[in-house]
Amino acid sequence: AYCLSVDTPSDVELEWDLDITTGEDMRLALKALVGSKYMGVPVNVFGENLVIRGKLRFRVGSIDFKKSPVVGLMRISFNGQPELDFTVRSVGKIEILDLPGVSEVVDSALGNIISDLMVKPKAIEVNLDEIWSRPPEPEKRPVRVDVKVIKAENLVAADKPVIAEVTGDEGTSDPYVDLQILEKKRKTKVIKKTLNPTWNADYVFLLSDEEWERSPLLTFKVKDWDLVGRHTSLGDAIVVLEELEDGVPKIIWLYLENIAHGRLMVSITIHGNVEQKTEATAELKRVGTMSQDISGTEVVVTVEVISAENLVAADPAIPFISKASSDPYVSLQIGTQRERTTIIQKQLNPVWNQKFQFVIQ
After folding, report:
1. Of 138, 198, 201, 222, whose Cβ has the fewest other Cβ atoms within 10 Å?
2. How far is the CA of 296 from the CAs of 98, 233, 271, in angstroms?
3. DSSP code at position 98
4. What is the pLDDT of residues 101-143, one digit of tens each?
């Protein structure tokens, strides 16, 4: 049976009643306590071949023949308590069918559940307008982070000869770089005996949508490789990935923190459906790194410190051991950016031939 009611030209509702019998492939699962509240035995009860028979009423409203789809609201309810038919079994040593009244208890419990949900005047209401008006879920695809570790300059010498003070040998290092985003890790190769290594090594990180929502940081840890013992830190730096523009490669000088001097050049490119966040992240920018971008509209000033001559001897002579001399180095600064040359021991005419870059906004 069905009827069509029109209260106003814009208010059209259609309802009809159907006699339904569900298929026999429905199942239910309940937990029953056999015995008293404190001494009872919990039993898993399963209902199989569940069949529901009843008169189901459908009502659709918010009908507008000028739009597609025309139906905006649906209400579903039973006209009266439906009949239930099922087979009860249990899992365990207790045979549930031998217990009196079990089928009636399960039937009553399931009937009460259905009554609370969808026996008139209760009904299940579905707002189709809201469902159909929802924007489609954006396609989730991994965010790809391409990282190129290019080179490092002016690293600290972790390996110094025992007689460095006498020979003037500044020492060297065996540097490598650890990269990490969340729990994902990469590592460059070790370059032996250098303070200015070049890697030009490429790495790829794939981040799920959930991982990107965690506002991940890209960390770099430069270390000195040692055959025995713990590897010595040569400094570290952090990049806030959310601050990088999607699809645009960024070449960045990272000034290493927690160390006297040294810097690392890297290139980073983000690929994917990355929503750029506009909120300030100044605190994160300042954690563990001092980075300068050398791309875009910024001006890069390159300074080369070549040599010095006829310097004053700051260290007096020691009779029969050494002449008066100095251990010179040069400090450079533009704005807040600082650099320093290596120290040359026992020399009044030092030669550095070192280049430094300063980025000016």
Report:
1. 138
2. 82, 32, 19
3. G
4. 666 666 677 667 766 777 878 888 877 777 767 776 666 668 8
220 in Cβ contact with 205 (< 8 Å): no
- Strand 250-255 to 263-271 pairing: antiparallel
Band of pLDDT at residue 167, cut at 50, 70 and 90 = low
Other beta carbons less than 10 A from residue 275's beta carbon: 10
Q: Is the Cβ–Cβ distance between 250 and 268 less than 8 Å?
A: yes
- Is pTM, for the whole model, over 0.70? no
Q: What is the pLDDT of residue 198?
A: 94
Q: How far is 103 from 50, CA to CA, in rounded Å?
A: 12
| Cβ–Cβ < 8 Å for 55, 79 | yes
Please answer whether residues 263 and 255 qualify as being in contact, where contact means their C-beta atoms are separated by less than 8 angstroms.
yes
Identity of the amino acid at 210: E
Sequence letter at residue 214? R
Q: Would you say 265 and 145 are in contact if contact means Cβ atoms under 8 Å apart?
A: no
pLDDT at residue 308 tops 70:
yes
DSSP 78: E
pLDDT at position 298 over 80: no
- The whole-angstrom separation of Cα 304 and Cα 351 is 11
CA dist 343 and 329 (Å) reads 5
Q: What is the pLDDT of residue 284?
A: 39
C-alpha closest to that of 151 among 312, 307, 266: 266
Q: Is the previous residue joined to 69 through a cis bond, with omega within 30 degrees of 0?
A: yes
